[in-house]
Automatic annotation (TrEMBL):
InterPro entries: Alkylbase_DNA_Glycosylase/TA, DNA_glycosylase. PANTHER family: DNA GLYCOSYLASE, DNA-3-METHYLADENINE GLYCOSYLASE. One of its GO terms (molecular function) is DNA-3-methyladenine glycosylase activity. This is DNA-3-methyladenine glycosylase 2 family protein. Transmembrane segments: none annotated. It comes from the Bacteria. GO terms for biological process: base-excision repair, AP site formation; DNA alkylation repair. One of its GO terms (cellular component) is cytoplasm.
C-alpha cells in the first residue's frame, strides 16, 4: 500500500534504529510495536488527528525514513525525527568509567527517543507497578487487543492502536480483573485518564515540571513518572528510582557491590543529565549485574482474586 505520508531526513547524530527504539515497545508480543528482519520498526500511535501506523527504517547509510498510514499519518511522520532521537543532546556526557567507555564505543548509535505521547507511555508504566514484567506485558497485550482498534496500513503482523483516554476510562472493573489488573492499578489508570488532556501537555513542559504534574495524580510516583519521561519526553536523565532491580544492577555492573536506591543516586551523580543514558548503554552492552541467587518477584494472578 502506498503510504499516506512519508518523511526522509539525515540525522545529526549516528542513529541505530533498533537500539534507539528498543524500549519503546513492551515486549516481543506488543501489538503496538513490532520489529522486522529488514531492520525496520513498526509502531502504531493515536495522534490528535487520528490513528497512524509508522514504519521507521534506514533508507541509506546517512538517511532515515518514516512511512505512515492512517488519518494521523501526516502528524505522525512529523514526529519521526524526535522519535529517533533528533532532540537527544549527548553534550556533556563523559563515560569515564571503563565499562561505560566500552559500551559507548560499541553502541554509539544509541539515541534517547521521544514519542511525545504521554498516555501511550503512562498506561503500560502503571501496569508494570509492583508486578513482574511478563505479567504487565500480558495485561497490556490483552487490554490493547480487546479495546484498541485495528492498525491502518500494511502491518507485518496484525497490530492494534492503543485505546483513547475515554475508552481506558470506561473499562469495567470486570474487564480489568479479567486482564489480571488489580483494583489499585486500574484505579490509577482511570483517575489519570480523567485528566488525560492535561497530562498530554506535559510534553511541552520542562522535565521537572512534567514529572511534578504526573506525580500529582494519586498512584503515580517517582518510578512511574521516570518511566514515562524516558519514552514520552526523551529525558536522558530520568532515573527509575524505586525499581525492584535497578539499584542492585547499577551497583554490580559499575562498582561490584550491592546498592540501594540512595547509594545508586549518589554513585550516578557524575553522570547527572545522562543517568538514563548510562542505564541504556549498560543494557545495550549486555553488562551483567548481580548474579541471581535470591527469590524472584512472584507472579500474582489477580484474575482469580
Amino acid at each position: 500500500m502506498v503510504p499516506d505520508a512519508t518523511l526522509s531526513w539525515t540525522p545529526r547524530h549516528e542513529t541505530d534504529v533498533g537500539l534507539t527504539l528498543a524500549r519503546v515497545g513492551r515486549g516481543p508480543s506488543d501489538p503496538t510495536f513490532q520489529r522486522t528482519r529488514d531492520g525496520s520498526a513498526w509502531r502504531t500511535t493515536l495522534m490528535p488527528t487520528g490513528a497512524a501506523t509508522m514504519r521507521l527504517s534506514r533508507l541509506s547509510p546517512d538517511e532515515l525514513r518514516c512511512q505512515a498510514w492512517g488519518p494521523g499519518a501526516s502528524e505522525a511522520v512529523a514526529t519521526a525525527p524526535q522519535l529517533l532521537g533528533s532532540g537527544d543532546d549527548p553534550t556533556g556526557f563523559e563515560p569515564s568509567h571503563p565499562v561505560l567507555v566500552d559500551a559507548h564505543r560499541r553502541h554509539s548509535g544509541l539515541r534517547i527517543p521521544r514519542t511525545g505521547r504521554v498516555v501511550e507511555a503512562l498506561v503500560p508504566a502503571i501496569l508494570e507497578q509492583k508486578v513482574i514484567t511478563l505479567q504487565a506485558m500480558r495485561s497490556w497485550r490483552e487490554l490493547v487487543h480487546r479495546f484498541g482498534s485495528p492498525a491502518p496500513g500494511p502491518t507485518p503482523t496484525p497490530m492494534r492502536v492503543v485505546p483513547a483516554a475515554e475508552t481506558w476510562r470506561r473499562i469495567s472493573s470486570w474487564e480489568w480483573h479479567r486482564a489480571g489488573v488489580d483494583p489499585q492499578r486500574s484505579r490509577t489508570i482511570v483517575t489519570a485518564m480523567r485528566v488525560a488532556d492535561s497530562l498530554e501537555r506535559c510534553a511541552e513542559l520542562t522535565p521537572t515540571e512534567a514529572q511534578q504534574r504526573l506525580q500529582s495524580i494519586p498512584g503515580i510516583g517517582v518510578w512511574t513518572a521516570a518511566e514515562v519521561a524516558q519514552r514520552a519526553f526523551g529525558d536522558a536523565d530520568a532515573l527509575s528510582v524505586g525499581d525492584y532491580h535497578l539499584s542492585s544492577y547499577i551497583g554490580h555492573a559499575l562498582f561490584g557491590q550491592d546498592f540501594d536506591d540512595a547509594a545508586m543516586v549518589v554513585a550516578m551523580e557524575p553522570w547527572r543529565g545522562h543517568r538514563y543514558r548510562v542505564v541504556r548503554l549498560l543494557e545495550a552492552a549486555g553488562v551483567a549485574g548481580k548474579p541471581r541467587r535470591g527469590a524472584r518477584m512472584a507472579l500474582v494472578d489477580h484474575r482469580w482474586h
